[in-house]
Design goal:
Length: 194
């Protein structure tokens, strides 16, 4: 994250980080104001009419932008199918194996909390489903284009396996990341190569 940011950006980031810890509904405007060093509650209402507007901006910044960064990275990946699949799985746990660095958000958050937060937002706040759905659709389109020879069925399969992998990773305390990524990638390959 940039050291120089606007108070609006600071509010959005603070809302995001507090929501990961406590859940959006359990974060008050006063909490956000206390944790935003640049402004208090009055500064929040200067930028946002109501608290729900914050969640809209959080989704734009931390889901839509993150999805776009992922799509750009996959679009520019020139590896084999297995290399691309490994990239996809590692990227979704916060590791960019192409650069050897973390995905930008991974320096700020725990990706397990990230997924739980947005699954919860999708479930509890139907008003944001369209935006989250569009993000999902963009990712699926990217899978179809880059991983499945323009086959929607294969793209859906890869997407579904990735979602299952993420849930397995979140729920399993003894999850062996490298072993399971390889296992999931080989499983996808065995289906796609038939």
């Amino acid at each position: 994250m940039s050291l120089k940011r606007s108070s609006k950006e600071a509010i959005i980031e603070t809302t995001f980080l507090l929501s990961l810890k406590k859940g959006f509904d359990n974060v008050s405007v006063n909490d956000i104001g206390k944790h935003t060093s640049m402004c208090g509650s009055s500064g929040i209402y200067y930028h946002f009419k109501k608290k729900e507007d914050l969640l809209d901006h959080v989704i734009d910044k931390y889901v839509v932008e993150n999805t776009n960064a992922f799509k750009n990275a996959l679009d520019s990946h020139n590896g084999t199918l297995i290399e691309k699949l490994r990239f996809v799985f590692y990227y979704h746990v916060g590791i960019n194996i192409l650069s050897g660095d973390n995905v930008p958000l991974a320096d700020l958050i725990d990706y397990k909390d990230y997924y739980l937060f947005f699954m919860n937002s999708f479930h509890i706040r139907p008003v944001f489903r369209d935006k989250l759905y569009e993000s999902r659709k963009g990712k699926l389109d990217c899978f179809v284009k880059n991983l499945s020879d323009d086959s929607l069925e294969d793209g859906l399969y890869i997407y579904a396996v990735l979602r299952g992998f993420i849930i397995d990773w979140i729920l399993s305390p003894d999850f062996e990341l490298d072993v399971n990524i390889e296992r999931y990638c080989r499983m996808i390959l065995s289906v796609l190569e038939k």
